[in-house]
Amino acid sequence: DGAVSRLLFIPPGQAVPDHGHNGLELTLVLQGGFSDDSGHFDVGDVEVADPAVDHIPTALPGPPCIVLAATDAPLRFNTFVPRLLQPLFGI
Question: Which pTM does this prediction carry?
């Protein structure tokens, strides 16, 4: 219950809003790549984020970053606008 997966398209140089995790998130890079405080992730890499992780994943220059992200609990956004929109998008 509560587990979802999402295909995300992140344009080069763009960031996902600053967020943490209420559970586990597994992110598989399908195209391009991204980086955050924990490292640099390219095609085929998987980032594992748990409730101890707060980050701002940012797409690398080059092709758009496409990832498959699976979570078992809602994200925890750290800024007002994403928190406000969270119920609308169901993330």
Answer: 0.84
Q: What is the total residue count of the chain?
A: 91
- List C-alpha distances in Å: 85 to 4, 35, 64, 70: 18, 24, 24, 19
For the chain, where are the alpha helices, taking DSSP H only? 80-89
CB 69, CB 8: distance < 8 Å: yes
Nearest to 44, CA basis, from 64, 27, 63, 58: 27
**Whole-angstrom Cα distance, residue 37 to residue 34?**
11
25-31 vs 65-71, strand pairing mode: antiparallel
**β-bridge partners, 24:** none
Over residues 28-84, the pLDDT tens digits come to 999 999 999 999 999 999 999 998 888 899 999 999 999 999 999 887 777 666 666
Give the residue among 13, 61, 68 at the shortest CA–CA distance from 45.
68
